[in-house]
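User: Hey, my collaborator sent me this sequence without any context and asked if I could get a structure. I don't really work with proteins. Can you help?
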Amino acid sequence: MTNQIEKLKKIINESNNIVVLSGAGVSTDSGLKDFRSENGIYKTMNQITPEEMLSLSMFQNHPKEFYDFYRKNFNCLDAKPNQTHLYLKKLEDEGKLKAIITQNIDGLHTKAGNKNVLEIHGSIYRNYCTKCHAFYDAKMIFDSIEIPYCQKCGGIIKPDVVLYEESLPSCYEKSIQFVQDADTLIVIGTSLKVEPASSLIKFFQGTNLVIINNEKTSYDCLADLVIHENLSQVIFQLTSSSVDNSKT
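Assistant: No problem. I've predicted the 3D structure and written it out in structure-token form, which is a compact way to encode the shape of the chain:
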């Protein structure tokens, strides 16, 4: 993997407008499960598909079942940013990283200190009453036992996360623009199986497309650099290489 790391380092050093597209694999080192790996959340589901359980219809018609699953699998309030999150913060501080487009709803990029984070699938930290739109924090949702209802009007509270059958938020359009303007697009920790998030790659017009993921993706053939390794190991070697070279 040494040659790949050196190539990645060269790409980053020569780039001035990097955009990152991140997925659940970025947060596994923070103790969170991803979705589609052998130990992922979706592998625990037998009698119902993820598309059904995490759909708007399930939330509207079976809110108790929805919230039982949601609270069990998406409570990441105590999770802390890992070395990948912190490395991306460093790139932003250096002026190289212009935006993080994330499919994650865990808020860890923001916790790490990144300023320009586009959460195209929403966030667990924002929750709104479906009737009066009153805001509720995530702790209220995860501390509740049954269906969380609005204390003002009695309406059901919905997490501001994008469910199946819902459209992406307006920040998706901003994401397209960032991808179009980037000289380097780095895709990390995502299988690129979820649309329309994965289609963002099609808008890239820059020089370097980099994909870092444990498993192959259907977009590997388009990339200038593909690394099929554990993300934490890639970041460790990348930062170690940076330290070593700075001493020479």
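In plain terms: Confidence is low (pLDDT under 50) at residues 243-248. You can pass these tokens on to your collaborator as they are.
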